[in-house]
User: What shape does this take?
Amino acid sequence: MPPGETLGTRHKSDRQAEAASGSRTCSGNAISGQSLTAAGDASSDRANGIRAHGRYDNKGPAQLRASSAIDRIASHADTCLAIPRGRKPPALSLLFLRRIFLLNRATASDTAQCLFYRHWFWIAIVFGLISEIVMSHPALALISNSEMHNEFHVARACSLERYAHVETGLVNVFAHLMDAPLDVAGVPFFKINNARARLAIIERLLKKKYGGKYNLFWNSLSKLLGTIDGVRNNVVHWQTQMDIGFEMRDGLPPTTINRMKLVPPNYWDTNPNTPELFLNDLYDFMCQCDFFNRLLVLFHHSIHGMDGTPQAWHEICLQPVVYPPPSTHPLFRK
Assistant: This one.
């Protein structure tokens, strides 16, 4: 745009040029049928251009300048939407304004409309920046953008969530054995940090209330729960490590290794027998916790004598627990 010339003056000169060339046929406030037909044809051509190329094919000078101005404003939006690594996505207001520019690039027909959207764009920028300052958190820069890292960390978090469900199943059994409501029974239960002590207390309460009726079931379940307690501690306290390299197998070419794993915190002192937890191990742990949680719900229903409890459930609670369960077990997941 030449110096000293504005969008408004250029737009005015274009309208004068169009009127002088006879491109418009107007008389006062009335428009001739010929010009209406021409306008309809232009709208049709305009729509065809939008469908084919995403913008107008047949534009007058004013329309071209308006579209060009919108393109420049949209480029400002692109600049504002450039997010550094580790930052959260931009405010929705910026995304919404960007969508408006993409749509109105093909619909704005004069400079005034273009300037209208430009004003609203800067208003949205101000609110968007305020939203970024208020809602962003420095910890987001510590989260990796790697899909492999995120998958592993999500599996680790879900593993701990599934273990928390097992604790919920245990407190239900504990509350029934204590003849106390859940809010009361939960106070001493969750104050006991030693998982082995919790299981020993429940075992003692079972014998007090039911004698040796559930010995086979609870003794086997208690041993299995003790194993997942150890895995849970490892998931919580071990550190994440990237395993990169090559794996050599007899008679096979070397294969590339690129995977995440959990290793003991003293990773300086390792040997070939040092235990590790990989992604599939976390998935297996999740399935174990899911099974034991549902089994505790089944056991609670059985000893509580709830109406509608199937007879097969009572029989299961009198037998040793086996994991993985057989395919005939009602809690078997296909």
Q: What stands out?
A: The mean pLDDT is 73.
